[in-house]
Write a structure and sequence with these properties.
The complex is a heterodimer of chains A (295) and B (503). Chain A has 295 residues and is an all-alpha fold. Chain A is built from 11 helices and no strands. The two termini of chain B are 33 Å apart. The chains are: A mainly alpha (295), B alpha+beta (503).
């Protein structure tokens, strides 16, 4: 998981540099940046309260807990219990709430706007996430990640269809959750258009480093779920799932960010609701296949 | 109504030849004339002459290619309120604001008479940036967003106050003046013409060539020395290179703002080639040092011509590919089309000029309406227009103008034979008691310089009008009703100058 989390930003940067015909920054540049950040102290605005100071800790803590619940193909997760898929989703929701509250705490109009947007998109992506988990749970009959992905090792056409579709769904969710194009643009310098970045404007030094690490972990969680789903169709081993997770997200995000313009902000809602609709469709397909109806 | 009629090529006019009229007559006449879309005000300013406050009004008629000058006077300490022309024609707005700010002249029934640029010699010293009277609306569901005046990036300072309903902008007010350096005052403060030339190059860094050409033209008119044909061509090549570089840079900036990486990196590379071409010619990427009154220090040579032609041809071909890419990307069209609309009627009312006005369908281009230099002789300029008035239209005007500029450069250099061009002239005395108007179509739009000399032949008053003066209002209108997150692309699509406005 750690390898995945650390490698994805590097892969994204390399893909973008390659497609732009540039030399690009070194693969480990993001690690160096964060190392510098972690060595620095933090500067706090006088308008903020304790809430602002603990938010990055909650954010990172929640992301770590969530990460521990995700299996890496045949490697069993550290935390696993019946219903941990729900727990996973709401641990991440807790992280989001912490950051939103911290952003509003600063009293800046930019951060207020960012918080409003993040809250809206967070609420909109939730159905997609839950329906996605429901599809897996329904098809496999378990509500724990570890059990879901260990459900069946033998080749099964129905399983393959559902798993591949679910993988596609989770890659899409990754785009939204990790604030990449076409929903959010992590590279922009324009506060008025930012979503995730603008909420972290007042953070500096070690806090900023923690937020970035948490962001990588979140991205890694979702890519790993997608990779697990693909791996479950055939080669269910960690040495297959890890590179797959890295490449799946890294390359797809890199290609999209190079070749496409960002959505108009008002179209983002449509984009996210479409993902939910897709999730519902996949759920329905999964249900039909489960009933063994030939379509 | 009496006007002194001239054009953009004629020599300076003696002050005594400018008719002086009554304000009432002028008011009635201008009121009617500005209803015609072919007519707009190039400049309107006041200056103290003995015990009088003398107002000069310069009107442009695009159809007859003429420049019309008239004036009126009032006692310096008179406190009669003049009926405001802004109330009828908002294009008079910045001019009347400036006159009030400097001389405390009251305009009756003038809406929005706020300070313009806080000059050091303003009449009301208590009016400062800190107490700028921002407009505000009360409402439960409304909130204000203030951007600036310290910008996080490298962009210049300006305060933008948005009044928003959720994500939608109801109103944007732009308060400028932070960059005021007293440029106009500095022109009159020195009699060293080289220093004045350098000053003109630094009015707005992105339009160094444009402002320098306008200054050089004004000086040449006051000397009575017309630039020779070769010098005209070299100046136009420099102007078109500047236009290409800036339009390409803005295309790239628009791509950056919507996160379209391919367009961004391609345009950045092309802009570098273009400005490096200017550097190879004169040693400065922005063309500083290239334009000098009555001559040049950097005449074109056969090798330089060859280099410029090769680079321009290359840039033209590659830029055309970028343009086709942009036109065929649905995700980009979705961002740019129907975003930031400024209808033609509004653009005319606010007196919009330059490429922003042409994107709204207004045919306003000094190169064709009041030709100067090579546009008056070897090149017949065809104005490029779009009709939608949205971000896409402004981008397309840019794209097409880059290609057109490249064609003009290639055409001008095709049959160009380098000959000895005179060295710059900084010493010939200027004609005394005269007024010279020089207008140049820069990449952003119409630049108008007005120089008035005293009896000793020194510049006594120098007035500069940058296209940004009017077009800032266009930006404020464009974002009304748009999402606040679309403000950056609207801002880039106009790309207005802060220092050109603030002077």
């Amino acid at each position: 998981m750690i390898v995945t989390a650390l490698a994805i930003p590097g892969i994204i940067n390399r893909t973008r540099a390659l497609l732009a015909g540039r030399k690009g920054i070194p693969f480990v540049q993001h690690l160096r940046n964060v190392r510098v950040l972690l060595q620095k102290g933090a500067v706090y605005s006088t308008t903020t309260t304790a809430l602002f100071k603990i938010a990055p800790t909650i954010y990172l803590g929640a992301a770590i807990v969530a990460t521990l619940m995700i299996p890496v193909a045949d490697l069993y997760p550290l935390i696993s219990f019946e219903g941990d898929v729900i727990c996973f989703a709401y641990t991440l929701a807790l992280a989001r709430v912490a950051l939103i509250l911290a952003a509003m705490d600063t009293g800046s109009s930019f951060e207020g706007m960012g918080a409003a947007r993040e809250a809206l998109y967070g609420a909109l992506i939730e159905p997609a996430l839950m329906i996605g988990f429901a599809t897996l749970a329904l098809f496999c009959g378990y509500t724990s990640f570890a059990d879901i992905f260990e459900y069946e090792q033998s080749f099964d056409l129905h399983l393959t269809i559902v798993m591949l579709l679910t993988a596609f769904l989770f890659v899409k969710i990754t785009f939204v959750e990790s604030g990449r194009l076409p929903v959010d643009d992590p590279r922009t310098h324009l506060e008025l258009t930012m979503i995730h970045e603008v909420m972290c404007l007042d953070y500096s030094g070690i806090d900023m480093g923690m937020i970035q690490i948490a962001g990588w972990l979140k991205t890694a969680c979702f890519s790993m779920i997608a990779a697990n789903a693909v791996a479950a169709t055939g080669c269910f081993h960690w040495w297959f799932a890890v590179p797959l997770a890295i490449l799946l997200t890294g390359v797809s995000v890199g290609v999209v960010e190079s070749s496409q313009a960002r959505n108009k902000l008002s179209r983002n809602t449509t984009f996210i609701v479409t993902i939910s609709a897709l999730a519902a469709l996949i759920f329905f397909i999964g249900y039909l296949l489960k009933l063994n109806i030939n379509i | 109504m009496k006007y002194y009629t001239t054009d953009n090529l004629a020599a300076a006019v003696a002050l005594k030849d400018i008719p002086q009229v009554e304000y009432a007559a002028l008011y009635e006449d201008v009121k009617e004339r500005l209803k015609d879309e072919n007519c707009h005000v190039a400049h309107y300013f006041a200056r103290a002459e003995q015990n009088e406050l003398k107002f000069y009004l310069i009107l442009l008629d695009d159809k007859t290619h003429t420049v019309m000058i008239t004036s009126f006077a009032m006692e310096y300490y008179d406190d009669i309120a003049l009926p405001s022309l802004t109330a009828l024609h908002p294009q008079m707005h910045p001019f009347e604001r400036e006159i009030t700010e400097l001389y405390n002249v009251e305009f009756d029934s003038m809406p929005w008479n706020k300070p313009l640029r806080f000059p050091f010699n303003r009449s009301n010293r208590n009016s400062t940036m800190d107490n700028y009277p921002f407009y505000s609306i009360e409402g439960e569901s409304l909130h204000e967003v203030n951007v600036g005046p310290i910008h996080a990036g490298i962009i210049e300072p300006g305060a933008f106050r948005f009044i928003c309903n959720g994500e939608n902008v109801l109103h944007l007010e732009i308060a400028l003046g932070y960059q005021h350096r007293g440029v106009e005052h500095e022109f009159a403060a020195t009699s060293n013409r080289l220093r004045q030339t350098l000053l003109s190059e630094s009015i707005a860094g992105d339009s160094a060539v444009t402002h320098a050409v306008a200054f050089a033209m004004a000086v040449e008119k006051l000397i009575g020395n017309k630039a020779d044909n070769n010098l005209d061509i070299e100046r136009c090549v420099a102007l078109e290179l500047e236009r290409m570089a800036m339009h390409i840079a803005d295309t790239g900036a628009l791509c950056t703002d919507v996160g379209y990486q391919l367009g961004q990196v391609a345009c950045e590379a092309l802009r570098t080639v273009t400005i490096n071409t200017t550097q190879a010619w004169c040693g400065n990427r922005f063309g500083k040092g290239l334009i000098r009154p009555c001559g040049t220090n950097k005449p074109l040579t056969t090798e330089k011509i060859e280099l410029i032609r090769r680079n321009v041809e290359d840039v033209r071909r590659r830029y055309n590919e970028v343009k086709e890419d942009i036109e065929s990307s649905p995700s980009i069209l979705a961002r740019f089309e129907q975003c930031g609309l400024v209808p033609k009627a509004e653009m005319l009312r606010i007196g919009g000029v330059g490429m922003a006005s042409r994107a709204s369908g207004v045919k306003r281009d000094i190169r064709s309406s009041h030709p100067y230099a090579a546009y008056a002789s070897s090149i017949e300029h065809h104005t490029i227009r779009q009709h939608d008035g949205d971000v896409m239209a402004r981008l397309m005007v840019r794209c097409n103008e880059v290609l057109q500029s490249a064609d003009y450069i290639l055409k001008m250099l095709e049959n160009y034979t380098p000959a000895t061009i005179a060295k710059p002239d900084y010493t010939t005395p200027l004609q005394g008691e005269s007024l010279a108007i020089a207008m140049v179509e820069g990449w952003r739009g119409e630049v108008c310089h007005v120089a008035i000399t005293n009896a000793e032949g020194e510049i006594a008053t120098y007035k500069v009008k940058d296209p940004s003066l009017h077009n800032w209002m266009g930006l404020a209108l464009a974002v009304r009703g748009e999402g606040i997150s679309d403000f950056p692309i609207n801002n880039k699509s106009f790309n207005l100058s802060y220092c050109g406005h603030d002077l």
